[in-house]
Amino acid sequence: MSHLRFVALILPASLIASFTGPEFASSNATCAHLPGAPKGVAAANDNRISAGTVVGSTLNVRLEMRAVAWRPDGAKGCALPVNAFGEVGKTTQIPGPLIRVRAGTTVNVSIRNTLPKTVWVRGLQDRGPGVLDSAAIDAGASRSFRFVANVPGAWYYWAGDAAARIPASGANGQLVGALIVDSATTAMRQPVRDRVLVISRWNPAGTTGNNGFQLNALNGRSWPNTEKLMYTEGDSVRWHVINASNELHEMHLHGFYFRVAARGLAIRDSVVPPDRALLVTGVLRPGEWSSIAWTPDRPGNWLYHCHLLSHMSGAQRLNRMTATAAAEDAHAHAAETSKRGNHAMDDMGGLVVALDIRASKNASARARTSAPSTNTRSIDLYANSRAGTFGSAPGFGFIVQDGSEPPARDSVRIPGSLLILKRGETVRIAVHNRLAQPLSVHWHGLELDSYYDGVGGFSGDRARIAPMIAPNNSFSVQITPPRVGTFMYHVHGERGSELASGLYGPLLVLDHDSTFDADRDRIFVMADGGPGTETTPFVNGTARPDTMDMVVGTTYRLRIISIANDDSFVTTMRGPGAPPTWRVMARDGAALPDGPSAPAAARYVGGPGHTRDVAFTPGTAGDYTMEVVRTRLGSTLGPITRVPIRVRAP
């Protein structure tokens, strides 16, 4: 038996770990609101070892579809009844067994359906034809799939109803598995830094007491039970991230930039933009996959997570799903603990992964962010609240102290005060918490030391963990930004409405010899218009922005920041005559490596955690409008916010 084309990822036990937080023990009472689950329990699949055996140039895999209990919150957590794949004679896995081969390998997969109904299987095919096949397997029946895997990519296979063109989110939502086809030149044994991360989802409509509950998991686990990924400074990291779900995700990497090396949908790969842009947040549409590459250059604890709040919220814990007495007690206990400041353990759940970056012997790269410059500037930033800002609900805001006296406690600015930093110059920002609950502030997109990243109870390292900022207390952040760009800062860890109600602000990094030109630099912060869903979008803190003035022939840098709870915004410039155009200059704070893009239609879809810098030169005098509307999975929602722009002749 030969293993020449068999990709085996065998790692030392020291590199296999979950986040150090405890599992959440369940009881019959706290799980009583959930439907009953079978006795057989599925194991979380870390996608390190390929399934099957190799004979000559053929990989043979024997699978079964089974009804099992799934415990995404850990072995002691509540169980869900789901269907999943498992190798014959082995434990069922969520996601299903990894199939990984080099291009040119023949793949032979047999599947037996042990479920009580017919299931349609998709994805077990080569992607060359560009047509997605499906095959029905009746209850108790088996079927074989044989193909030559020629097209490299982070593909996947799945099963479900006849209409399931992408994986669903009900009982069949865990019938998914990765099918990775490496290029023919890929080494047989992948380095430990190459990982496969499969996103799946559970959101069964009609479940008693569901009340909109959802659970999003990565490699079969929900935070804090997700696997901790461990690297060393200077490692070349490559992840194949597969969105095997029917929901969009905005995947954000704390502290570092990444590049998209390849991406695709269920049936075909996509053209990667030639700009080779650096990103800190990458969108994954339903059924989409992305292979990303990055290099950690600073040690400490970091996060990789979906930036949609509902997908990283602790509300996804199964014992908090519904308002049964026991589940209500569990939720209340978590909320009370969160008030005491255990953000990492109580406020987050779902699509969150811990990264542990170990220091290398050559740690010179750290000097650019951790070593203070000769002159250190200080800023005092206050987190305030004001009652009755949004009807009966309070508003929140960050405001910089201007002068010798702190701002009034009910002084709220939405968005928060503009912070302007200089490249290579150290600034110390003292964040003062005047709120009733503990606070963490994340410096989104900035390359800084882990201790200052802004995840209370997690950021830092073994020797020093950053705390939540207790009420009426403060925490000093030190930043020496290495690059110019458009960034943001925002609350990290909340009980549901603080972000939508104002705890965010713009942050610019300019070159050390530059000054901010408020006439040529225009900032647009797109956010929710207060608590609730489908509120009128806010642009710079209002649904009725004032008129902006511009001049024909003058080039303006429009800095667009998107920081909604869960939705994206479509931003469109409209004007007299031909449709306006602009050129993209930067994404997520990083300038495009090949310079500004060619002129294109002045339209941008930005999800939570994205920034976009564009150059706009109005060519005709008249009245223009920047329109901002909420969008979710391609559908526009709610009213449009319009920014009037008056363009006059020079």
CATH superfamily of the largest domain: Cupredoxins -  blue copper proteins
Work out the count of structural domains: 3
Beginning-to-end CA distance, first to last residue? 78 Å
Give the % helix: under 10%
CATH class of the largest domain: Mainly Beta
Estimated share of beta-strand residues: 35-45%
Q: State mean pLDDT (0 to 100 scale).
A: 89
The strand count comes to: 45
The count of helical stretches stands at: 4
At the fold tier of CATH, the topology name of the largest domain is Immunoglobulin-like
Q: Based on Cα principal axes, name the global outline.
A: globular
Oligomeric description of these chains: single chain
* Biggest β-sheet strands, sense, barrel: 7 strands, mixed
The residue ranges in which pLDDT falls below 50 over 5 or more consecutive positions are 1-20
Task: Explain what you see.
- This protein is mainly beta and 650 residues long.
- It has three domains: 345 residues, Cupredoxins -  blue copper proteins (Immunoglobulin-like), CATH 2.60.40; 143 residues, Immunoglobulin-like (Sandwich), CATH 2.60.40.420; 111 residues, Sandwich (Immunoglobulin-like), CATH 2.60.40.420.
- It has four helices and 45 strands.
- Strands 2, 3, 4, 5, 6, 8 and 11 form a seven-stranded mixed β-sheet that branches.
- Strand 19 and strand 20 form a beta hairpin.
- The longest helix has 15 residues.
- The protein is globular.
- The chain starts with 16 loop residues before the first strand and ends with a strand.
